[in-house]
Design a protein that fits this description.
The protein has eight helices and no strands. The protein has helices spanning 18-24, 27-35, 41-49, 56-68, 72-80, 93-110, 123-137, 142-166.
């Protein structure tokens, strides 16, 4: 039996990725997404202006670099957009009280919400890590703590951005507050 000509193999087209969508999004949409990662309009605009990014690692590197250029005002604005972490529903009331008291002391001393990047900490570990972090950082002087808070914001922004573009687990202690003006 003779066979006819074979058809060329069908190659499925590449599906768009979240990075493709970010690169192609209108500027205002890209800025809005970035403001959910770090509440600094200057930071968000800078990253948006340098699109397209060839891969997620390049975007994360650019975001990381941009956080080092935050002015004191930008840092204050980013910290003002943060909020306290939500505790798991089954957390006992004494833990809520301890966290509230520790945060009140922190905010009274430094004038902004406490921020910390928890990385891969489980929900069960998060409360202890947050309390430990607040208590240890209360010993910092205001200038030293501003440097530490800026570093934690940098790590939070990178974790949040990676989560949005890669589908990674939540790397932040605080939920992403709505973007300013949204």
């Amino acid at each position: 039996m003779t066979r006819g000509p074979t058809l060329p193999a069908h190659r499925p087209s590449r599906l768009p990725t979240p990075l493709d969508a970010f690169n192609a999004a209108p500027d205002d949409e890209a800025v809005a997404l970035l403001l959910h990662c770090l509440h600094s309009p200057r930071w968000a605009r800078r990253i948006t202006e340098h699109r397209p990014y060839p891969d997620v690692d390049s975007l994360l590197a650019a975001a990381d670099e941009a956080t080092y250029d935050l002015s004191p005002g930008d840092l204050s604005e980013a910290l003002a957009g943060e909020c306290l972490p939500e505790l798991p529903e089954d957390t006992y009331s004494a833990a809520h009280t301890a966290l509230t008291a520790a945060h009140a002391a922190y905010e009274a001393k430094f004038g902004h919400v406490f921020v910390i990047h928890l990385g891969s900490a489980t929900p069960a570990e998060a409360l202890d890590r947050v309390l430990e972090g607040i208590r240890s950082r209360l010993t910092n002087d205001p200038d030293e703590e501003r440097v530490v808070a800026a570093e934690e914001l940098r790590r939070l922004a990178g974790g949040r951005l990676a989560e949005k573009l890669r589908g990674a687990g939540n790397c932040a202690t605080s939920p992403n507050a709505p973007a300013p003006g949204k």
